[in-house]
Design a protein that fits this description.
By secondary structure, this protein is an all-alpha fold. Helix content is 60%, strand content 0%. It contains 4 helices and no strands. It has helices spanning 6-19, 28-41, 47-52, 56-64.
Length: 72
């Protein structure tokens, strides 16, 4: 089992947030879907890391109890 690079996951999430076009993704559901797809399409993450953060909001909440540095 490889180590999960939480700092890289956090950077991918930040990049996805900054890439949202609010004229196109104009409601929460569209923004959420865009972020999920951006994470899944990212080539720098392993499959394990993608599985760790398929839902950025829930993933951060789950990990906040183990790693307080995971917050963006």
């Amino acid at each position: 089992m490889s180590d999960i690079r939480y700092d890289l996951i956090r950077r991918v999430i930040v990049r996805a947030v900054l890439s949202i076009n609010y004229n196109i993704h104009n409601d929460f559901h569209k923004q959420h879907e865009f972020m999920q797809q951006a994470i899944l399409d990212d080539n720098s993450l392993t499959e394990e890391e993608k599985a760790e953060a398929p839902d950025p909001y829930l993933s951060q909440h789950r990990k906040s109890h183990q790693d307080p540095e995971i917050y963006i």
